Amino acid sequence: MRLPSRAVMLIAVVALPLALTACSTGSTGSTTDSGTGTSAQPAKTKDPDSGLLTGTQLKKALAPASAFPAGLTLESDGSADSGGQFLSPAGRKTGKPDCTRLETTSWIQVSGYKGGVSFAQNGYANKTEEVDQEIDAFQGSTAAAVMKALRGVAAECATYTDTDAHAKVKLTGTATAGLGDEAYTMTLTSGYWENGTTLIAARSGSSVVTVLSTAGGDNGAASAKKVTTTILSALKK
């Protein structure tokens, strides 16, 4: 099941600066201390987005078509990125995860986090198979928190009912060595599906790579790993 991309978030990014401009008083003068006659100097704060890649940069790190199985083509409606601006960080939504999100694009949201302050995503598909990729950049230690949340999701969604066929789905998850700073792989299977789904989440510094694949007779395992490895290599350059 495919969901619309996060392109709607880009509208908010563009609208915010316009709103701030409309609310501005137009005053740009410095504040003067009446007691000393000197200009007050605001304390400098560290930019929380410093060192993070923008959506434009993350887009360049997405795996190219050559990393995907033959016969799959780019899905134009699934391509989006946050451009050169950073989004406002969103807090984590707590409570029981919506396990059905594991079958969709932007499945990182099952962690309770909507996504990073910047992102890039796209997907390749044919009539029966699909492979989706996304990179999200997070402030501070949030990327590690996202990975921890995803590991928890694997336990909470060990079995659930899917949306399309109302079939029972089994989820198995395991830590995966050799991919980025840390990685976790989940496999979804059901007796009602022709093929299962492999999900890989891998952290590289402050970025989290999430890949979904249903391509191949191995529940999408090989193709998911290839795309993930390709993205991680690009992020290290």
Overall pLDDT level: 87
Supply the number of helical segments.
4
Give the biggest beta sheet: 9 strands, antiparallel
Count of DSSP strands:
9
- From the alpha carbons, calculate the radius of gyration and give it in angstroms: 21 Å
What gross morphology would you assign? globular
Structure description:
By secondary structure, this protein is α+β, with helices and mostly antiparallel strands. It contains four helices and nine strands; from the N terminus they run ααββββαβββββα. It has helices at 8-23, 55-61, 142-156, 221-236; strands at 73-74, 80-81, 118-125, 130-137, 159-161, 168-175, 182-189, 197-204, 207-213. Strands 1, 2, 3, 4, 5, 6, 7, 8 and 9 form a nine-stranded antiparallel sheet that branches. The protein starts with 7 loop residues before the first helix and ends with a helix.
SSE blueprint and pairings:
Layout: H1 8-23, H2 55-61, E1 73-74, E2 80-81, E3 118-125, E4 130-137, H3 142-156, E5 159-161, E6 168-175, E7 182-189, E8 197-204, E9 207-213, H4 221-236
Antiparallel strand pairs: 1-3, 2-3, 3-4, 4-9, 5-6, 6-7, 7-8, 8-9
Describe, in short, the structure shown:
This protein is of the alpha+beta class and 237 residues long. It contains four helices and nine strands.
Key terms for this structure?
single chain, 237 residues, alpha+beta, 9-stranded antiparallel β-sheet, 23% helix, globular
